[in-house]
Amino acid sequence: MNLRRLKYFVKIVDIGSLTQAAQALYIAQPALSQQLATLEAEVGQQLLVRTQRGVTPTEAGKALYRHAQIILRQCDQALSDLASAGQVSVGMAPGTAAVTLSLPLLRRVHASHPGILLYLNENYGTTLSELIMNGRMDMAVLYGDKAVHGLEFMPLAKEELYLVGPGIEPRPGESIRLADLADVQFLLPRPYNIVRKLVNEAFMRAGLTPHIIAEVE
């Protein structure tokens, strides 16, 4: 007994005519009659009685009709659940992205797509890019404006970098000249970190070298 024959049988009972059911199902009537005969052979009982006005279900046919309706509804529900369920993996670069976006993203996904299991991975941009490239992650929020071949990027926000440290005079609204930082001792992330890359590139363009005394992992 397969689902297609059950669908055919339910349609025949609903319409009450083999000819009209065949038209509604877009199949030839002889083919539909053959499917009905196969179904009756499978259950070992006559399911329909042919009359001048069409077909009516036997007692066995009525019982199968009730069960078939339940089975088909459950199958439709299962397909619907499978279509909405699943896991979506999102990478978050350490810092502002992970802190600011994680909780709102969790709330929004839970409210709009309760069947989705959201997997958050906080990691560095190079690692997240590799995970996406090899199909182990769906999307990620990264820092930087350089495209990676094979990935599609969409700008979300722009952040400013701030210099923080003892003895540094705050100047709200003003930028700091790199020439004024030639003697400043820096504590920066490792070279693969996007902030470190931005600092190195800025100093290189200015013809300077940052005085790095320690690195942070």
From TrEMBL:
Which branch of life, at top level?
Bacteria
Q: Give a Pfam family name.
A: LysR_substrate
Q: What's a GO biological-process term for it?
A: regulation of DNA-templated transcription initiation
Task: Domain (HTH lysR-type): give its ranges.
Answer: 1-58
- InterPro entries for the chain: LysR_HTH_N, LysR_subst-bd, WH-like_DNA-bd_sf, WH_DNA-bd_sf
- One Gene Ontology molecular-function label: DNA binding
The record's keywords, sorted A to Z, are: Activator, DNA-binding, Transcription, Transcription regulation
Q: Which family does it belong to?
A: Belongs to the LysR transcriptional regulatory family.
Q: What is this protein called?
A: HTH-type transcriptional regulator CynR
The organism that produces this protein has a lineage beginning with: Bacteria, Pseudomonadati, Pseudomonadota, Betaproteobacteria, Burkholderiales
